[in-house]
Amino acid sequence: MFYSACRTVRLKPGITPTSCSCHTGRHVVLRLDEQGEAPSDQVNKRHKKEKVPCQPVLDHFDQQYGQELPDLWASTRSVLLNPHSWQYGVMLNRFTSATDVIQILQSKGFSRFLPQTDASALLCDAHSLASKSKCPAVNGLVLSPRSISKCLPDNFHPPSLGTSHAVSQDLESDTLPSLPCHSLQCYIHPYTMRFPTPAHRPGQLKQYYLLNAASLLPVLALQVRDGEKVLDLCSAPGGKALAIMQCATPALLCCNEPDPHRQEWLTKTLESFLPHSLNSRVIVSAQDGRCFGMSEAAKYDKVLVDAPCSNDRSWLHSGSSQRGDHRLKERVRLPVLQAQLLRSALSAVRPGGVVVYSTCTLSSSENYAVVETVLNDFPEAEPDDLWEEIAIPLSKYFAFGPAHPSRGQASHKPSLQSQNRTVSSYHHRLGILVVPQPGKTWGPMFLSRIRRRPQ
Ligand SMILES: C[S@@+](CC[C@H](N)C(=O)[O-])C[C@H]1O[C@@H](n2cnc3c(N)ncnc32)[C@H](O)[C@@H]1O
């Protein structure tokens, strides 16, 4: 059992955990024929079960996202409304041998996303070059493209970095060395090829986990290293916790989830993927995430806040109009809860530590506005620019939205300008947004990384 230090804190009446059925962990079971198409009998079964889009939610999104993402919403809408176009990534479990799975994946045309041979190999080269050259000592695994280019030979010419804030162009992303070396292995397919859910094998760990590949970006941004203390504040069903454990072996990973049913789901996930030898390092707790910052102040090196949000994909298929209406009413309260969770996370992280805030909605008020509000109250917190570090290197796989929607720009003042930042870099620093587009259907996923300044 991955249980210890489990404290249940009752949520205040009226503020129940949002039943956010995050798109991580949603397993779609389809057998694949040789062409990668679902057999027609299965396609027919799927059609029978298919839900019609929820009209009140669709109308609401049309109005909001039509304004916030004017150039993108029409194509995003078509992706979100068509579950057959959704893609799933296959994250391998490093605690099992997955040679057989890799062979099947490769034979079906899947390839490794974040292959070791491009960015990370170049990064490792840069490390060895740095150690032999005049370059200052390299701390940690991540170097910015700029610092690497200083260490590379004079005749090395990196591709120029695009500065456009619009949807990604196919930049020469494979050669941009800004992502860390890591053991995370995720396979993706260029088309909407789906892989079956991993079978339960008695006494054996599961070999892979299916997820929206954009869910890995907040974990990459967290940059967890061996021996660190990590808090996953809103953890169920556990997809990102598993991804963290693929990247490194923390001294402690506390997976927090206050909703009892979802906590059960989380515990089962951890038990199915992680070996018993990690039981003392991976614990499940049941606190209201808003209280963590007080009860465990400055205890963690890294905190992930994968916040409850209006999950655009699942909300569009809410079923009845009544349910859709109810969710839209709940929606207005989410930014307050999200800001409370983010504040709590910033209190739980040690000075010098890092918090990543993420959601799976396109909504500006749950994304940029939450980050901005919290930054205004936390002078000791500083946002990082993830555009260069994550959006540009991965633009081959993901489409990214504009740095900050125009509506948000008008309504939220860049208070950090006083700290010598331009408006443009300020808006990049608030976070990056993965916007589903035809051919790059991953997302929605917003992520922002905030550093607590060392004292
Ligand atoms: C987006 S989901 C998390 C998905 C998870 N990180 C993953 O990758 O599988 C958000 C979770 O936050 C939980 N939650 C809701 N209110 C919370 C609160 N006050 N404190 C902590 N977690 C909360 C929800 O029950 C839900 O399981």
From TrEMBL:
<dbReference type="InterPro" id="IPR023267">
    <property type="entry name" value="RCMT"/>
</dbReference>
<protein>
    <recommendedName>
        <fullName>SAM-dependent MTase RsmB/NOP-type domain-containing protein</fullName>
    </recommendedName>
</protein>
<feature type="binding site">
    <location>
        <begin position="234"/>
        <end position="240"/>
    </location>
    <ligand>
        <name>S-adenosyl-L-methionine</name>
    </ligand>
</feature>
<dbReference type="InterPro" id="IPR001678">
    <property type="entry name" value="MeTrfase_RsmB-F_NOP2_dom"/>
</dbReference>
<feature type="binding site">
    <location>
        <position position="288"/>
    </location>
    <ligand>
        <name>S-adenosyl-L-methionine</name>
    </ligand>
</feature>
<feature type="domain" description="SAM-dependent MTase RsmB/NOP-type">
    <location>
        <begin position="137"/>
        <end position="453"/>
    </location>
</feature>
<dbReference type="GO" id="GO:0031167">
    <property type="term" value="P:rRNA methylation"/>
</dbReference>
<dbReference type="GO" id="GO:0003723">
    <property type="term" value="F:RNA binding"/>
</dbReference>
<feature type="active site" description="Nucleophile">
    <location>
        <position position="360"/>
    </location>
</feature>
<keyword id="KW-0949">S-adenosyl-L-methionine</keyword>
<feature type="binding site">
    <location>
        <position position="257"/>
    </location>
    <ligand>
        <name>S-adenosyl-L-methionine</name>
    </ligand>
</feature>
<dbReference type="GO" id="GO:0008173">
    <property type="term" value="F:RNA methyltransferase activity"/>
</dbReference>
<dbReference type="InterPro" id="IPR049560">
    <property type="entry name" value="MeTrfase_RsmB-F_NOP2_cat"/>
</dbReference>
<dbReference type="GO" id="GO:0005762">
    <property type="term" value="C:mitochondrial large ribosomal subunit"/>
</dbReference>
<keyword id="KW-0489">Methyltransferase</keyword>
<comment type="similarity">
    <text>Belongs to the class I-like SAM-binding methyltransferase superfamily. RsmB/NOP family.</text>
</comment>
<keyword id="KW-0808">Transferase</keyword>
<feature type="binding site">
    <location>
        <position position="306"/>
    </location>
    <ligand>
        <name>S-adenosyl-L-methionine</name>
    </ligand>
</feature>
<dbReference type="InterPro" id="IPR029063">
    <property type="entry name" value="SAM-dependent_MTases_sf"/>
</dbReference>
<dbReference type="Pfam" id="PF01189">
    <property type="entry name" value="Methyltr_RsmB-F"/>
</dbReference>
<keyword id="KW-0694">RNA-binding</keyword>
